[in-house]
Amino acid sequence: MHLFPKSIRDDVPSFRRADIFSSLFRFSGRYLLCRGCLGPLGAGAEAGLCKTCWSGLLPLQEPRCPRCALLHDADSGCPDPVAWTFGDALWNYRGGRPPLGTLLLPGIKAGELGWRSALLVRVARASLPSFAAESELVTAVPTALHRRWLRGFDLAEDVANHVAKRLSLPFLRTLRKDWKVRRQVGQTESARRRSPRKAIFLRQDTAIRNRIVLLVDDVWTTGTTLLRCAQALQEGGASEVRVLTLFRAI
Ligand SMILES: [Zn+2]
Ligand SMILES: [Zn+2]
Question: Whole-model pTM?
Answer without folding.
Answer: 0.84
